[in-house]
Amino acid sequence: MAKLFPTILDTKYEKILKEERSLAKDVSSSIIKLKPLTAWDITIPLVFIINLVKHKRTKEIFTLNFLFTKKLALEAARDMVGTGITKEEAMAGIKEKTGEILSSDEKGIYSQKIRNKQTREIDLLIDHYVKLLREPAKDYKTMMQNTYQTWERYNAFLIQLKRAERDVNRAAQQTVGAVAASDVAFKMEKSLERMREVRAGEIFVF
Fold this sequence. Notes:
Elements: H1 8-31, H2 39-43, H3 45-83, H4 87-104, H5 112-133, H6 140-148, H7 151-176, H8 179-203
Helix pairs in contact: 1-3, 1-8, 3-4, 3-5, 4-5, 5-7, 7-8
Protein backbone atom coordinates (compact mmCIF):
# COMPACT_ATOMS: atom_id res chain seq x y z
CA MET A 1 0.00 0.00 0.00
CA ALA A 2 1.32 3.44 -0.96
CA LYS A 3 2.12 5.83 1.86
CA LEU A 4 -0.44 8.60 2.32
CA PHE A 5 2.03 10.99 3.91
CA PRO A 6 5.80 11.29 3.44
CA THR A 7 7.92 10.24 6.39
CA ILE A 8 10.71 12.37 7.80
CA LEU A 9 13.15 10.07 6.02
CA ASP A 10 11.32 10.64 2.71
CA THR A 11 11.44 14.40 3.23
CA LYS A 12 15.17 14.36 3.97
CA TYR A 13 15.76 12.11 0.97
CA GLU A 14 13.97 14.60 -1.30
CA LYS A 15 15.91 17.55 0.10
CA ILE A 16 19.25 15.86 -0.53
CA LEU A 17 18.16 14.83 -4.03
CA LYS A 18 16.98 18.39 -4.73
CA GLU A 19 20.40 19.70 -3.72
CA GLU A 20 22.20 17.23 -5.99
CA ARG A 21 19.85 18.03 -8.88
CA SER A 22 20.41 21.77 -8.39
CA LEU A 23 24.17 21.22 -8.48
CA ALA A 24 23.88 19.13 -11.66
CA LYS A 25 21.79 21.81 -13.37
CA ASP A 26 24.25 24.55 -12.43
CA VAL A 27 27.18 22.53 -13.78
CA SER A 28 25.33 21.77 -17.01
CA SER A 29 24.55 25.47 -17.48
CA SER A 30 28.20 26.37 -17.01
CA ILE A 31 29.54 23.95 -19.63
CA ILE A 32 26.66 23.68 -22.10
CA LYS A 33 26.28 27.07 -23.71
CA LEU A 34 23.65 28.15 -26.22
CA LYS A 35 25.35 28.92 -29.53
CA PRO A 36 25.40 32.57 -30.69
CA LEU A 37 22.40 33.64 -32.73
CA THR A 38 22.71 33.15 -36.48
CA ALA A 39 20.92 34.86 -39.32
CA TRP A 40 18.62 31.86 -39.57
CA ASP A 41 17.66 32.15 -35.89
CA ILE A 42 16.66 35.74 -36.43
CA THR A 43 14.84 35.36 -39.74
CA ILE A 44 13.20 31.99 -39.04
CA PRO A 45 11.82 31.76 -35.47
CA LEU A 46 11.16 28.05 -35.85
CA VAL A 47 14.89 27.38 -36.29
CA PHE A 48 15.65 29.24 -33.05
CA ILE A 49 12.95 27.31 -31.18
CA ILE A 50 14.26 23.97 -32.46
CA ASN A 51 17.83 24.85 -31.41
CA LEU A 52 16.60 26.06 -28.04
CA VAL A 53 14.75 22.78 -27.43
CA LYS A 54 17.85 20.78 -28.40
CA HIS A 55 19.92 22.87 -25.99
CA LYS A 56 17.45 22.32 -23.15
CA ARG A 57 17.28 18.60 -23.90
CA THR A 58 21.09 18.34 -23.80
CA LYS A 59 21.16 19.94 -20.36
CA GLU A 60 18.42 17.62 -19.12
CA ILE A 61 20.34 14.57 -20.34
CA PHE A 62 23.51 15.82 -18.63
CA THR A 63 21.60 16.31 -15.37
CA LEU A 64 20.17 12.77 -15.53
CA ASN A 65 23.61 11.31 -16.29
CA PHE A 66 25.20 13.24 -13.43
CA LEU A 67 22.51 12.06 -11.02
CA PHE A 68 22.78 8.40 -12.02
CA THR A 69 25.33 7.36 -9.38
CA LYS A 70 24.05 9.89 -6.85
CA LYS A 71 20.50 8.62 -7.01
CA LEU A 72 21.52 4.96 -6.79
CA ALA A 73 23.59 5.73 -3.71
CA LEU A 74 20.90 7.89 -2.11
CA GLU A 75 18.22 5.24 -2.65
CA ALA A 76 20.51 2.64 -1.12
CA ALA A 77 21.23 4.90 1.87
CA ARG A 78 17.50 5.47 2.38
CA ASP A 79 16.90 1.72 2.37
CA MET A 80 19.71 1.16 4.85
CA VAL A 81 18.38 3.80 7.26
CA GLY A 82 14.71 3.00 6.70
CA THR A 83 14.65 -0.79 6.53
CA GLY A 84 17.88 -1.76 8.21
CA ILE A 85 19.49 -3.60 5.31
CA THR A 86 23.27 -3.82 5.41
CA LYS A 87 25.59 -1.93 3.11
CA GLU A 88 26.61 -5.22 1.53
CA GLU A 89 22.96 -5.94 0.68
CA ALA A 90 22.52 -2.42 -0.69
CA MET A 91 25.63 -2.72 -2.85
CA ALA A 92 24.50 -6.11 -4.12
CA GLY A 93 21.25 -4.55 -5.32
CA ILE A 94 23.15 -1.76 -7.08
CA LYS A 95 25.52 -4.21 -8.76
CA GLU A 96 22.50 -6.14 -10.00
CA LYS A 97 20.97 -2.98 -11.51
CA THR A 98 24.18 -1.82 -13.18
CA GLY A 99 24.82 -5.38 -14.34
CA GLU A 100 21.48 -5.39 -16.14
CA ILE A 101 22.37 -2.11 -17.84
CA LEU A 102 25.74 -3.50 -18.87
CA SER A 103 24.27 -6.68 -20.34
CA SER A 104 21.60 -4.77 -22.25
CA ASP A 105 24.03 -2.23 -23.75
CA GLU A 106 24.37 -3.19 -27.39
CA LYS A 107 26.38 -0.10 -28.40
CA GLY A 108 29.27 -0.75 -26.03
CA ILE A 109 28.97 2.66 -24.37
CA TYR A 110 28.62 1.37 -20.82
CA SER A 111 31.75 -0.70 -20.16
CA GLN A 112 32.73 -2.93 -17.27
CA LYS A 113 35.50 -0.45 -16.47
CA ILE A 114 33.01 2.41 -16.12
CA ARG A 115 30.79 0.21 -13.97
CA ASN A 116 33.68 -0.68 -11.66
CA LYS A 117 34.65 2.96 -11.18
CA GLN A 118 31.02 3.95 -10.58
CA THR A 119 30.75 1.24 -7.94
CA ARG A 120 33.60 2.87 -6.03
CA GLU A 121 31.93 6.28 -6.29
CA ILE A 122 28.58 4.87 -5.14
CA ASP A 123 30.22 3.11 -2.20
CA LEU A 124 31.68 6.43 -1.08
CA LEU A 125 28.42 8.32 -1.59
CA ILE A 126 26.38 5.80 0.38
CA ASP A 127 28.44 6.49 3.50
CA HIS A 128 27.96 10.22 2.98
CA TYR A 129 24.19 9.99 2.49
CA VAL A 130 23.67 7.59 5.39
CA LYS A 131 25.36 10.08 7.72
CA LEU A 132 23.08 12.87 6.48
CA LEU A 133 19.91 10.78 6.71
CA ARG A 134 20.70 9.65 10.24
CA GLU A 135 21.00 13.23 11.47
CA PRO A 136 17.94 14.40 13.46
CA ALA A 137 17.89 17.68 11.52
CA LYS A 138 15.41 17.96 8.66
CA ASP A 139 16.93 20.73 6.54
CA TYR A 140 19.93 20.14 4.29
CA LYS A 141 22.17 22.86 5.71
CA THR A 142 21.82 21.65 9.29
CA MET A 143 22.25 18.02 8.25
CA MET A 144 25.56 18.99 6.65
CA GLN A 145 26.70 21.11 9.59
CA ASN A 146 25.91 18.40 12.14
CA THR A 147 27.52 15.67 10.04
CA TYR A 148 30.81 17.37 9.18
CA GLN A 149 31.09 20.17 11.76
CA THR A 150 33.84 21.98 9.80
CA TRP A 151 34.81 22.75 6.20
CA GLU A 152 38.03 20.78 6.65
CA ARG A 153 36.14 17.57 7.45
CA TYR A 154 33.73 18.05 4.59
CA ASN A 155 36.57 18.90 2.20
CA ALA A 156 38.30 15.64 3.13
CA PHE A 157 35.22 13.84 1.83
CA LEU A 158 35.09 16.03 -1.29
CA ILE A 159 38.69 15.17 -2.12
CA GLN A 160 37.81 11.47 -2.08
CA LEU A 161 34.66 12.07 -4.10
CA LYS A 162 36.49 14.17 -6.67
CA ARG A 163 39.00 11.36 -7.22
CA ALA A 164 36.22 8.80 -7.59
CA GLU A 165 34.29 10.98 -10.07
CA ARG A 166 37.46 11.69 -12.02
CA ASP A 167 38.16 7.96 -12.31
CA VAL A 168 34.65 7.45 -13.72
CA ASN A 169 35.25 10.22 -16.26
CA ARG A 170 38.60 8.75 -17.31
CA ALA A 171 37.05 5.33 -17.79
CA ALA A 172 34.29 6.92 -19.88
CA GLN A 173 36.85 8.78 -22.01
CA GLN A 174 38.71 5.55 -22.72
CA THR A 175 35.48 3.83 -23.69
CA VAL A 176 34.18 6.64 -25.91
CA GLY A 177 37.58 7.39 -27.39
CA ALA A 178 36.66 10.94 -28.43
CA VAL A 179 39.33 13.62 -28.13
CA ALA A 180 36.69 16.23 -27.25
CA ALA A 181 35.61 14.14 -24.24
CA SER A 182 38.78 15.07 -22.37
CA ASP A 183 38.09 18.79 -22.69
CA VAL A 184 34.47 18.39 -21.60
CA ALA A 185 35.50 16.28 -18.61
CA PHE A 186 38.06 18.88 -17.54
CA LYS A 187 35.53 21.71 -17.73
CA MET A 188 32.95 19.65 -15.86
CA GLU A 189 35.34 18.73 -13.07
CA LYS A 190 36.53 22.32 -12.61
CA SER A 191 32.98 23.67 -12.64
CA LEU A 192 31.86 21.03 -10.16
CA GLU A 193 34.75 21.76 -7.81
CA ARG A 194 34.07 25.50 -7.92
CA MET A 195 30.34 25.18 -7.33
CA ARG A 196 30.75 22.74 -4.47
CA GLU A 197 33.10 25.18 -2.77
CA VAL A 198 30.58 27.99 -3.22
CA ARG A 199 27.84 25.87 -1.67
CA ALA A 200 30.12 24.77 1.15
CA GLY A 201 30.87 28.41 1.88
CA GLU A 202 27.19 28.93 2.54
CA ILE A 203 27.19 26.09 5.06
CA PHE A 204 30.56 26.26 6.77
CA VAL A 205 32.77 29.16 7.81
CA PHE A 206 36.17 28.94 6.12
